[in-house]
């Protein structure tokens, strides 16, 4: 029996349509992810916490630290997780009115710039004060910069804040943060590799990233309407929804190709399709695919957390300092746009989570030998705490806010978080 | 700029949430698959051919023989393709009434056994007559056995035959074929590896495969209703649909684990959930995820075809002989159940495609050194022709049939091919 099964597995592994063991591993990991995220998400809701918190905890439990069922470095799971965050940002873009985003543009930019400068400075000096060398301290400061828009956006949507000025400021600032974060990532990578830094090369990266979003939105708005008018005439089932997702994937790929981030491209794709008459059907299909892919992303973010690396005392001290710098820096950033009349504390809290973006910096530093295992543990702790503290923090601030709305949740089969968007677009 | 981009790519590749370049490659391959399959599917429809024929041709064009955009051996694409065929068989199972399948059980079993024995015998002797050694001839004969249920089921559904006695016989026979095919695969693999063959080991593999389907359906029917009553109480969006897919994935994994095929488990999962009161919502979610995953499967089957390996004259001759044996053998099998009152020719034609199942045998033979590159090319040609000839063949037989129904197509957002199923379950 066992020899035969070994032969079968060998046969399956050698087959051209690949699969066999790969697919079997993916199947069981996905089953674990779907069941665990939904169950823990439900438990989180019963405790009046956002479902995403439960999904992240599900990921930690499934990851290498506890059960070891989900390996976020597995190429298949990692890619599905990336497709998940791309679909998530596309969904968010599909519900974001560009004009409203531009109205909060000055506020969002101020919050974003302050939210990069303050944590970077605070983190660098705190790490130096605790005895870290210049380059590890720089990596630590840099890891404090970027905002994980996925987690905040999901919590804001769960709480009914996505279509508010605060929601738009956080979203806009987080997207700008991602662009700045990519520039800093490139700069830090160059410093770590010992390359000379030139103002010229930094400006070029920055220019490309900003130009990408602007060009994508302008060109996309010209090209998408006629393309989707043609697509609408394709009679095959699901064609419209599939072309919407294909458009998001294409924009995400272009963003990555031009040196920006995939999620920036996906968000821009959503912004572009917001005005299409076919938006509702595109959104309905995207929501279903999102239900399938997005939990994989959140579970992967959770599974990437290594609880053991966090347990070292020195790591705990540096980590605690970084957590403090990260939270204080982002909270202050929320107040940087002093003229903004909304809930500044909510904006600050919404900027706190680092999630997968912080993990990219930490992992890059470790891979390049720029940070030690202990410093890596400290960065992990910072990412872990800032990510997990945000959902309950947002709930708490939201409940104290006079503009607080009752919790609105997605209805299955409907246009997802779209139900929250006010105005004439209500289905 | 280029150094910076290289650094960014290196950084992305080293990150724990994997992705970066992997995900970017997957994104652009998926964009190509979605756009090409839908466009060529539409063109096929305009020529009154089933859309799946266009999707297969899209795969050939995207594969290594022509454009080289889609690599079906890439682990991510291969796994997504496998998830696609799992979801496809789950959808088919969700629309298959077990009682109706059992009513045609004797006919389906007869067709399946004849459809294995005739092509195997014909293929083995034809290959031997053309000068092939014993083991390559055995591999060739074995590759002629299995039926690619995915392609026939999709075409039958496109043509409105899925809910007919002919459709059920083809489906049932194809599933039995898959079980027999797995046994033969294990046996041939053992012969190729030089292992001694015992009647005992063969019977054990056969017993496991048959017992799996029976046990899965019996146990599943007992466990699924209470589980889904609990799942229904989870308030998170899309939970029910996601649990349906998780159930299908779990059954597919179990089938693979116990030495059967993933698609057999997925089909059994659909059969089990057919009777649930929550079937409609599960089916709606599955259809949307299927629109996303199934084209990846069909494009991969097409992309695995290497047109260059087919061009050798000796390969062409052996290939032509295998095509003839494969088609004649399966057509005759359609008439083996002489008591069956339906369209026997339609059943025979429906059994013709080998698709990915034939490719597994060919690839296994090549990897084990049991067949030469030329013989591999011949097997490729057989797989190619039998797969591509089936959709127009079914259309032709279907039009000549007195029981022919008009073409019914899926409606976007509806329960997929479910629209074809008659009776009280119409939404």
Architecture overview:
Two copies of one chain form a homodimer. By secondary structure, chain A is an all-alpha fold. Chain A is 73% helix and 0% strand. Chain A is built from 17 helices and no strands. The first copy, chain A, is globular and about 65 Å long. Chain A starts with a helix and ends in a 27-residue tail after the last helix. Residues 1-19 and 406-427 of chain A have low confidence and may be disordered.
Please outline what is shown here:
The structure is a homodimer. The first copy, chain A, has helices at about 1-15, 20-45, 50-60, 75-95, 100-105, 105-130, 135-145, 150-160, 165-190, 200-230, 240-255, 260-275, 280-305, 315-335, 345-350, 355-365, 375-400. With about 425 residues, chain A is mostly helical.
**Structural class designation of chain A:** mainly alpha
Number of helices of chain A: 17
Strand content of chain A: under 5%
Average of per-residue pLDDT values of chain A: 78
Q: How does the overall form of chain A come out from the CA principal axes?
A: globular
Oligomer: homodimer
Q: Which pair of protein chains has the largest interface, and what are the residue counts?
A: A-B, 100 and 100 residues
Main sheet makeup of chain A: none
Give the % helix of chain A: over 70%
| Rg estimate of chain A, integer Å | 21 Å
Number of strands of chain A: 0
